[in-house]
Amino acid sequence: MSTLKRIQRMMVEQFELKAEDLAPDAQLEALGLDSLSVIEFMFKIEDEFHVKLPDERVEIKTIQDITRIVERLVAEQQAAS
Amino acid sequence: MARRVVITGLGIISPVGKNPDEFFSNLMAGNSGICRLQSDFVDKLAIRIGAPVQEYNPADFFSKIKLAGIERFAQFALIAAAQAVKDAQLELAEHERPRAGVYLGTSMGGAGTMEEGYVEIFQRENPRVKPLSVLLAMNNAAASHLSLAYQLQGPNVTYSTACSSSAIAIGEAYRQIKGGYADVMLAGGSEAMLTHGVMKAWEALRTLALEDRQDASASCKPFAQDRSGLVLGEGAALLVLEDAERATQRGAHIYAEIVGYDCSSDACHITKPDFAGQTRAMLNALRDANLSPQDIHYINAHGTATLAGDIEETRAIKQAFGEHAYHVPISSTKSMHGHLMGATGAVEFMAAVLALKHNAVPPTINLHQPDPECDLDYVPNKGRQLPLRAVMSNSFAFGGSNAVLIARRFDT
Fold first, then answer.
1. In angstroms, what separates the C-alpha of B65 from chain A's closest C-alpha?
2. For the complex shown, is ipTM > 0.85?
3. Considering CB atoms only, which of A14, A33, A43 is closest to B131?
4. What is the pTM of this model?
5. Which residue of A32, A36, A42 is in closest CB contact with B69?
6. In degrees to the nearest 10, what's the CA dihedral of B20, B299, B307, B24?
7. Distance, CA of B119 to CA of B128 (rounded, Å)
8. pLDDT digits (tens, 9 = 90+) for B336-376
9. The predicted structure's pLDDT at residue B12
10. How far is A41 from chain B (nearest CA, A)?
């Protein structure tokens, strides 16, 4: 399953959102996720993808933003190990 | 003339009912909410009884997105407040919001979240805790969620004085309105501390009731010879308090008027109750209400069912009420809903307000053989119908902080 699909599935499970609303460019805020919900979600992302988010702050506004970060981290951390 | 303060809305989620009607009818029927806990850690406890909120499913009240940021004690507060606000048919215009506030009592706030964090760090050696841990656990989380939910822009304060927390929250809210600093206050308490660690801590203090061998639900026995201590409970109770003029003008239903309050300290011992301090609190509240002991028709006692507490409170009532102490019906509803700590003052004050409404006094259950040193009328085992005009609710805390509230039928 693609990274995007996995993230979309997690969002459906955790926030009871409708899959059809979860286009890659959907704004998280418009989906009802405020900054705190996003922090909470990224915590779950770390578990799901076995990655560790970097300490620097990254801007996350859309589902695509999350996908990009996850793909980058997975690639980096695979290369490092 | 001083402003008057009335109660226009009630809401509760408790071990004996999830709305005021259910709560009060269970109290009158003598139904106990105390039981064997079902928690997964129960085998690790020496004392396995408590008074949980039964059949509670957070998803019935909150979306998953919301739940990630709302602790159990804040959930309870929001549920009780929603009932109270609806009951009061409270609507605040934009310009009224800065004069509407929230005062809430809690003893241990987000104890469950703190504990989960410790398990992750110290037991599982997980380097991370839930990212919202601070916002979930902070003691003022529940009051702040209420302020957000109802756009209350006036004072937003959390009181933590153990067993008297929410009685003080209500009393201080009454003073805010009486003193002209606010027109509407949401006031009450919330507690959710039936967690492994908190239960262990109370167990260690040796003040918890032992489980009754025949019937776990009968383990809390205030004023009885065979009492052995308190039973921890959870839940929340919230009241809408309002300036009487505002309430009458909008034609609100008025349950009662708050006429007396005192908050004072034993300054005596960290746990040992002190009848002198308790007497002082009751007399000060009577003075505030401009009532004499004979005017009080029912006392909802603190009545924890600890060995020292019940005797000391009995002595204090005698000292404050004189001869009338023997004629005023007194009950400890803790025998049914347990001790809700930070929420207990609000729960019990609500019981007293509902007693006024229904002209009915709930019983002290499990009182078959009274302690000879507890020789007042504790309404044993069976509630009573009788006309009531004014009622008192006592809350005496660990730490020595005492609070007494008096409500009276509202006359214009």
1. 5
2. no
3. A43
4. 0.95
5. A36
6. -20
7. 11
8. 999 999 999 999 999 999 999 999 999 999 999 999 999 99
9. 98
10. 9
